[in-house]
Description:
Layout: H1 12-23, H2 27-52, H3 62-82, H4 86-98, H5 104-108, H6 120-124, H7 136-140, H8 143-161, H9 165-176, E1 207-216, E2 219-228, H10 233-245, H11 260-269, H12 278-288, H13 290-306
Antiparallel strand pairs: 1-2
Helix pairs in contact: 1-2, 2-3, 2-4, 8-9, 8-10, 8-13, 9-12, 11-12
Amino acid sequence: MNTNATHAYTDFQSLSALKADAREDSAGALKAAAKQFEALFLQMMLKSMREASEGDPMFDGEQAAMYRDMYDKQLSLELSEKGIGLAEMLVKQLQQQTSEKPEAIKELNMSSRPLISQRPYAAAQTEAVTTPNTTATEIAASPEDFVSKLWPMAEKAAARIGVAPDALLAQAALETGWGKAVIRNPDGQSSHNLFNIKADGRWDGESVAKSTLEYREGVAAKEVARFRAYASFEESFSDYVDFLQSNPRYAEALQQTGNPKEFVRSLQDAGYATDPAYARKIGQILDRGVITSAAADVKNTAQRTLS
Length: 307
């Protein structure tokens, strides 16, 4: 077997050949298995980087996520060919073990299962710490799940200021990449902050630090800031409304709630976000129709349940 050849991540035939060589306990199979392990490690690193990124909601969706995940998996195999040193370290350690335990290479062979999931999009979904209410995992599964899980909370919060729930969900989608980039605490728990409201001197609750991209006089720069943390997504919606109502600078925006796009544009003009394209991006999310379609499904489901 050519252990130096880069295969496509969907090439399970090469994995079968690797297992066959492993049964013969060949040195080549040991190196190939170590490279497979290194590829898996790189894939996990790429996945973590994707989840940490706020992403671009304009390109979020099942189709885009699927192709991005496929690209990352193939990239991990390509990178493993050049190597980051992990495979060599594994080979050195296992060569010492195999002299005493011939089965060691079989243990590295990952119990005969494919290293890469055959369901590309399923592999892209995130795991999160569960909470008594809606979890971060539930809202991050897809844009449709994001809307369906958060719609009742958005509807309740939106009614307090007279704006369409769609506007709040579109804003939250932009801020969190459809739930995939909700800020987390150092221990991995979700901050449940859907609107990325910062924890300034007026906030006496929990907070979490995070690197953020801010625009100063049109120039983007990375900064570290503290953001509010909540016990649930419902608290995030409630505090968002309180935040707008308690700040005179957003008085004009609260007069524009009859038009979601004008409402968001007024928020930007009042300094809610430093991104000069903030209102336009939210408007584009609204125009895509994902929120409207998912909300209609929620309403239809509720009607069928009541009837």
